[in-house]
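Continuing the series of single-chain predictions for the mutant panel. This is the parent chain; the variants come on the following pages.
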Amino acid sequence: MEKIGKYQVVRKLGEGATSEVYLCHDPFAGRDVAIKVVFPDTLGDDENRKLFRKLFITEASLAGKLIHPHIVQIYDAVVDEGISYVVMEYVDGGTLEPHCNPDALMPPDRIVEIIFKCTRALDYANRADVIHRDIKPANILLHGETDIKISDFGSALITTSMVTQVSGIGSPAYMSPQQIKEHPLNLQTDIYSLGVVMYQLLTGQLPFQASNNFSMMYQITNVEPQPPSSLRAGIPPAVDAIVRRAMQKELEQRYTDWDQFSDDLSAVISREAVEQKKESFADSEKFNILRDLPFFAHFSDAELWEVMRVSSWEYCKPGKPLMFEGQTGDFFCLLASGEVKVMKQGKLLNILSSGECFGEMAYISREAGSARSADVVTLSDARVITIRNEDLDRASDVCRHKFDRAFMAILVERLSLSNTRLIGV
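Parent structure:
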């Protein structure tokens, strides 16, 4: 096969029972894509084929709807008698499956970071009225150390859809008790499944061992699993508690939303950073810092991940110069914590605290060779976020618009304050 529609085939990536996946090149968008081609007889007329057709159409219907840095984006879909396929973002990396092997386990802190990103992606999907229903290591792609993308939304439950949803689908080992019993489902079924994934990544085995699906389903609904720490040394009690709560059999005892799950994971990461006196920032810590800063109040989760991608982060001791009067600048900063002083010709102009920005005129004015009007020096231990103009230029239009809106609000506030001071004089 040389072409699939307008897409040039590069090579075959894999094959399953109902489809095969190809790496292709999109000549119009100038990017590589992954295309899942469904076998022609899969979309036939008998009952089994009707099921697969419905699953395929469910996935195809999400084209352009789930746009998040930790979800595989679906660009396009074609369903006709000749060929049916879904065009997806190509992710250069494997799944989490190899890291469920006891001989290839990742460190617990890395696992916690990965699961945190999964919780944020699935929260985004849930806010778009989508429940995945088939969360497992094979459907989580790993790129780099902790970057992930959730894939395969063919089994998804679209809660606003008027189409009858298929029940009884998924992978039994990762199904929640409610899914096994075919009860009405909500986001808590994905929370349970992600808890199972976390358990398996931590220990190298599933929480329930069974020789057949019936035994597996009985254990899921009736048996309590061993804590991960009993199977692997070095797992903190807080991590045991997170897995236990995510995998509670009763909905009332399980996490009720993704924020609760995320908050517990980030607390573990923050605690470990303090204990080990780390000066680097975990992505989960960055995300939570940004989400709490007033400057980013109107940014969506996806846009916050963009901000993280285009920014650099640094711990600074008191007295560290960050900007110099008369120096040309092509970046601006935001203060995540601590205080800085703004000086002009040796005189104190202002003291800025957590959440405030400085040096933004270098981005707003864009005048070649424009010089800084003041010195900026840290007054205390501080966490400083730096964003270069050229890096922000590569962000999405929506993200840049949110920065413009935030800067405008700051300028209006400063102008109002200046007018008040003049009236007072």
